[in-house]
Amino acid sequence: MATLFTLIPSSNSTFLNPFKTTQHSKLHFATPSPTFKNPLSIRCFRPPETDTPPEIQKFWGWLSDKGIISPKCPVKPGIVPEGLGLVAQKDISRNEVVLEVPQKFWINPDTVAASEIGSVCNGLKPWVSVALFLMREKKLGNSSSWKPYIDILPDSTNSTIYWSEEELSELQGSQLLNTTLGVKELVANEFAKLEEEVLVPHKQLFPFDVTQDDFFWAFGMLRSRAFTCLEGQSLVLIPLADLWVQQANHSPDITAPKYAWEIRGAGLFSRELVFSLRNPTPVKAGDQVLIQYDLNKSNAELALDYGLTESRSERNAYTLTLEIPESDSFYGDKLDIAESNGMGESAYFDIVLEQPLPANMLPYLRLVALGGEDAFLLESIFRNSIWGHLDLPISPANEELICQVIRDACTSALSGYSTTIAEDEKLLAEGDIDPRLEIAITIRLGEKKVLQQIDEEFKEREMELGGYEYYQERRLKDLGLAGAQGEKLPWIGEV
């Protein structure tokens, strides 16, 4: 049987666009890397610890000295169950402004360009230049004007980019493993290029050892804390505000998206911009304030970005990447039809647990599988109407083929895991698991459930092949040559 599609690991990350085509493998499913968006919702969680470490006190004092916060600020940093977060100092009402951070205290490509290393960062990708700036400021220690902020950044997170080989082995067979390895390879390649073009030739600006581990640290900080779709800003770190971002709330009871932040002018006659954050839900004094960052992210995206997962079923998703093979005899015709309908040689479909198949997935599958006696539909006379035909079953052979290929792909993918669904569910039920192992189990369990769902759906389609109405039957009805049940009508004049 001919291969109908290629499944390509992919990423939609705003600052990792080159990763879109880094790995190619046939009959594998692909997990999308995260895209930052700005819907959020905030809720209170269990009360934080009251003891505040010295570095947090210094950070708060620095914010106060810079005029970013005042004694009336409704939030403050604090140690919370997840690490460092924000705590309400008073009852906060809905839509109340909880903080405003002026542009001069943002870290973005403009900050880098205006810094001592700005002249050597020309031509670097925005995220690479900001990562380099972040690394350098950390290495400068007491000489850095950003030290109070740098000191509160963690050494790492539970993001899969920081996992050891042994920890990554728990993701065997998963999409997330492929995506993580691809990201690590890309970051390593970027560092090698950075070392050759910037670090070594400009030792006077970097009079200290800068390692690949340092670069991964900076990358992880950007991945988990940066805002990437603010108006006019491709990538920006905002001290204090990023305590919301890095504490992506994984509570399953928050489901409503909110738009709570904006960039606006500092005043009527001021050209300076400020980042303004409003609280979309009431929070009581003393409670932790958390974020639900992008309700559409999958668990794989949350694990890669923040090092966490969530129990809601809709967090479990696959991106099925279908591709029209160039070896197809009708490659040109099929590509033309796909492009005429807003698609292309490759098509990406997010399949979510307990939700219907994505729109256009079945039409695209039928197009890729089209051939044999059905190939006449590829002729130019049908070009304006074929997508409507593909929305419904074309022929028993075409429908059976897409079912077989999808089911074979699911079987192949499921065979790549070292555990079963039942075994993973048992491990989670036992509790008291290392956080990274719990993430790995949750990811692979969710992926297997989605694979199982896909297989079951196409198995049902296989069993119902004899009950579908196909193109020829529909055409006969349109011509008045078949009845409502598909029975052929006698010709005019026949007795």
TrEMBL record:
<dbReference type="InterPro" id="IPR015353">
    <property type="entry name" value="Rubisco_LSMT_subst-bd"/>
</dbReference>
<dbReference type="GO" id="GO:0032259">
    <property type="term" value="P:methylation"/>
</dbReference>
<dbReference type="GO" id="GO:0009507">
    <property type="term" value="C:chloroplast"/>
</dbReference>
<keyword id="KW-0949">S-adenosyl-L-methionine</keyword>
<feature type="binding site">
    <location>
        <position position="242"/>
    </location>
    <ligand>
        <name>substrate</name>
    </ligand>
</feature>
<feature type="binding site">
    <location>
        <begin position="82"/>
        <end position="84"/>
    </location>
    <ligand>
        <name>S-adenosyl-L-methionine</name>
    </ligand>
</feature>
<dbReference type="GO" id="GO:0030785">
    <property type="term" value="F:[ribulose-bisphosphate carboxylase]-lysine N-methyltransferase activity"/>
</dbReference>
<keyword id="KW-0808">Transferase</keyword>
<dbReference type="InterPro" id="IPR011192">
    <property type="entry name" value="Rubisco_LSMT_MeTrfase_plant"/>
</dbReference>
<feature type="binding site">
    <location>
        <position position="225"/>
    </location>
    <ligand>
        <name>S-adenosyl-L-methionine</name>
    </ligand>
</feature>
<feature type="binding site">
    <location>
        <position position="261"/>
    </location>
    <ligand>
        <name>substrate</name>
    </ligand>
</feature>
<feature type="binding site">
    <location>
        <position position="306"/>
    </location>
    <ligand>
        <name>substrate</name>
    </ligand>
</feature>
<feature type="binding site">
    <location>
        <position position="225"/>
    </location>
    <ligand>
        <name>substrate</name>
    </ligand>
</feature>
<feature type="binding site">
    <location>
        <begin position="249"/>
        <end position="250"/>
    </location>
    <ligand>
        <name>S-adenosyl-L-methionine</name>
    </ligand>
</feature>
<dbReference type="InterPro" id="IPR036464">
    <property type="entry name" value="Rubisco_LSMT_subst-bd_sf"/>
</dbReference>
<keyword id="KW-0809">Transit peptide</keyword>
<comment type="similarity">
    <text>Belongs to the class V-like SAM-binding methyltransferase superfamily. Plant protein-lysine LSMT methyltransferase family.</text>
</comment>
<dbReference type="InterPro" id="IPR001214">
    <property type="entry name" value="SET_dom"/>
</dbReference>
<dbReference type="Pfam" id="PF09273">
    <property type="entry name" value="Rubis-subs-bind"/>
</dbReference>
<feature type="binding site">
    <location>
        <position position="293"/>
    </location>
    <ligand>
        <name>substrate</name>
    </ligand>
</feature>
<protein>
    <submittedName>
        <fullName>Ribulose-1,5-bisphosphate carboxylase/oxygenase N-methyltransferase</fullName>
        <ecNumber>2.1.1.43</ecNumber>
    </submittedName>
</protein>
<keyword id="KW-0934">Plastid</keyword>
<keyword id="KW-0489">Methyltransferase</keyword>
<dbReference type="InterPro" id="IPR044431">
    <property type="entry name" value="SET_RBCMT"/>
</dbReference>
<feature type="domain" description="SET">
    <location>
        <begin position="66"/>
        <end position="294"/>
    </location>
</feature>
<dbReference type="InterPro" id="IPR046341">
    <property type="entry name" value="SET_dom_sf"/>
</dbReference>
<dbReference type="GO" id="GO:0016279">
    <property type="term" value="F:protein-lysine N-methyltransferase activity"/>
</dbReference>
<dbReference type="InterPro" id="IPR050600">
    <property type="entry name" value="SETD3_SETD6_MTase"/>
</dbReference>
<keyword id="KW-0150">Chloroplast</keyword>
